[in-house]
Amino acid sequence: PAHPVVGVGAVVVRTGRALLVRRAHEPRKGEWSLPGGLLDLGESLVDAARREVKEETGLEVEVGPMIETFDRVHRDGEGRIRYHFVIVDFVCWSNEGEAVAGSDAEAVAWVMADQLDAYAVNAHAKAVIVKGLEVVRS
């Protein structure tokens, strides 16, 4: 890549559970994580979070506060940068509708914080999800 790209993630919460998606594409194809994706030119971060959740799960969400901003750099076997993302995560609420796997997801699941290890969610995503669930509880 010529420069970093901006992405968003959404900790979608309903009844004490967070929504996970199993990624359908690289990077991290097949892994469980948060719904999210890249910001389109001219799109706000909040609109991108709302759009990505809709595309990946079919759900309409209310976007709440930003809970995390971080960068993720993926390198190939020779150390060259394959991807460089700057990701902004939001907590979101969805009170109705059924989540279904959409364009960039192979599957979806609503999980409690103590179930995240069973889905092999990476440590950073797990921390963000737990933080999002705590924001909703407080």
- What is the makeup of the main sheet? 7 strands, mixed
Calculate the mean pLDDT score and round it: 94
Oligomer: single chain
Unreliable parts: none
Explain what you see.
By secondary structure, the chain is of the alpha+beta class. Helix content is 20%, strand content 41%. The protein is built from two helices and seven strands; from the N terminus they run E-E-E-E-H-E-E-E-H. Strands 1, 2, 3, 4, 5, 6 and 7 form a seven-stranded mixed beta sheet that branches. The protein starts with a strand and ends with a helix. 32% of the residues are buried.
How would you summarize what this structure contains?
This protein has 138 residues and is α+β, with helices and mostly antiparallel strands. It has helices at 45-57, 123-137; strands at 5-14, 17-23, 32-33, 36-38, 62-75, 81-93, 105-111. The radius of gyration is 14 Å and the shape is globular.
Provide key terms for this protein:
41% strand, 138 residues, alpha+beta, seven-stranded mixed beta sheet, 2 helices
